[in-house]
Amino acid sequence: MSPETKKNLDRRLARLEGQVRGVRRMLNEDAYCVDVLTQLAAIRSALDSVGAELATAHVESCIVGYGTGSEHAHCRTMTQEDLVEELRITLGRLIR
User: Fold this and answer.
1) CB 90, CB 63: distance < 8 Å
2) Residue 70 CB contacts under 8 Å (≥ 6 apart), including other chains
3) Which residue ranges form the domains of the chain, and what is each CATH number?
């Protein structure tokens, strides 16, 4: 994963931490339930976006980039069938 991607994901996760703290504060202050639910939906959507970006980085570095010297250090030798299975697993974890 590129340093730029890591920095972007970290920034987005930090923002999510703030949103979660905000929801906790809303609950402690007895905020209107629909407003809390709206914030929870926003958090879920933001987490999905982070997951999609991480999955994309994985595909770029470990699946498509395999054998190019740009793959992640944790990659192992894989056949084409293994690479397709890795993609299936990655997408499956993303959409659970």
Assistant:
1) yes
2) 61
3) 3-95 (1.20.58.1000)
- Residue 81 and residue 66: Cα distance in Å, rounded? 13
This prediction's pTM: 0.79
Q: Which tokens belong to 8?
A: 């972007």
pLDDT tens per residue, range 67-90: 666 566 666 677 888 888 888 888
User: φ and ψ at 80, to 5 degrees?
Assistant: -60, -40
Nearest CA-CA partner of 90 in 64, 10, 2: 64
- Helices 3-28 and 33-58: crossing angle in degrees, nearest 10, is 170
